[in-house]
Design brief:
This protein has 248 residues and is mostly helical. Helices cover 68% and strands 2% of the residues. The protein has 11 helices and 2 strands. The protein is elongated and about 70 Å long.
C-alpha cells in the first residue's frame, strides 16, 4: 500500500476522533461529555483510524494487501503533545459544526419558492427552524460543544468556539437575508441582520438544553408536531423586521 502523507494521517485521525466522541457522548452520558477531550486517547484514535481506513478500502480477502495500521507514532508526528491533538480537534469540530446542511443556496431557493407559492412567513420560519432544532437536539457532538460553552476558560477553547460561531453566523446571515428578500422585508432599525441570526441561534441553543431535560416541555400547544422553539423563532423574525417599502 502507498505510504500515507502526514496530512492524510491527520485527516484520518481527526475523523476517528470525532467518531469516538459521537459514540461516547451517546453511551456514557453528559458527565463524561463534559470532559470529552480528556477521554480521547491517542491509542484509541489510532485503533479507530485503522478500522476506518480498512473499512474504506475493504478487507484483504480479495487478494489485496490489508491497509497498514495507523500507529501512535504516526499520530505523534502530527501532534507532538496531547494538548496539540486536543486543540486541533477543537477546531476540527468547529469546522464540522459550522456547515449548514442543506446548503445556504438551497435553503434560500426554498424560501423564494415558498413566497412565490403564497406560503405564510410564519409557517416558513417555523418549518425551517424546526428542522434546525431537531438536528441539533439529536446531535451528540452538539452536546460536546455545549460542554465547551459552559467551561470556555482555556483560550484555545474560546478561539475554537469563536471560529465556529463566526463561520456559522456568516452562512446563516446569507440565509436570513434570502428570507427577507423573498418576503420583501428589511431589518427594523436599529436591529441588524446579525442580531436576527444571533437571536434565532439563542432560541435554538437554549431550547435544546431544555428539551434534553424534559422532552415534553417544548411541545407547541397549537401544533404538537412542532416546538415552542420554532414558534418563538418566528416571533423573533417578525418582531425584528418590517416591510422593505411602504405599501403601494
Amino acid at each position: 500500500m502507498p505510504k500515507r502523507t502526514k496530512e492524510q494521517t491527520r485527516a484520518l485521525m481527526l475523523r476517528a476522533a470525532v467518531d469516538l466522541l459521537r459514540e461516547r457522548a451517546l453511551s456514557q452520558g453528559d458527565d463524561v461529555v463534559s470532559a470529552a477531550l480528556a477521554h480521547v486517547r491517542v491509542t484509541d484514535i489510532a485503533r479507530r483510524a485503522t478500522e476506518l481506513v480498512r473499512a474504506d478500502l475493504g478487507t484483504a480477502g480479495d487478494g489485496r494487501p490489508e491497509a497498514a495500521a495507523i500507529t501512535t507514532g504516526a499520530a505523534y508526528q502530527v501532534w507532538p503533545r496531547q494538548a496539540d491533538l486536543q486543540a486541533d480537534l477543537l477546531f476540527h469540530i468547529a469546522e464540522l459544526q459550522a456547515v449548514l446542511g442543506p446548503g445556504a443556496a438551497e435553503v434560500v431557493a426554498s424560501f423564494r419558492a415558498a413566497a412565490d407559492a403564497g406560503a405564510a412567513l410564519e409557517d416558513v420560519v417555523v418549518g425551517a427552524v424546526e428542522e434546525i432544532w431537531r438536528a441539533y437536539r439529536d446531535d451528540p457532538i452538539f452536546r460536546v460543544e455545549l460542554s465547551f460553552l459552559v467551561a470556555a476558560v482555556d483560550p484555545r477553547v474560546r478561539a475554537a468556539l469563536a471560529h465556529r460561531r463566526e463561520r456559522f453566523a456568516a452562512t446563516a446571515d446569507d440565509v436570513w437575508q434570502g428570507l427577507l428578500e423573498a418576503y420583501g422585508l428589511r431589518m427594523r432599525p436599529p436591529y441588524r441582520l446579525r442580531d436576527l441570526t444571533t437571536a434565532v441561534a439563542a432560541q435554538v441553543v437554549g431550547s435544546v438544553v431544555l428539551w434534553w431535560a424534559d422532552q415534553e416541555v417544548l411541545a407547541d400547544p397549537f401544533d404538537g408536531g412542532r416546538s415552542l422553539a420554532s414558534r418563538a423563532a418566528a416571533l423573533v423574525v417578525t418582531g425584528l423586521t418590517e416591510p422593505a417599502a411602504p405599501p403601494g
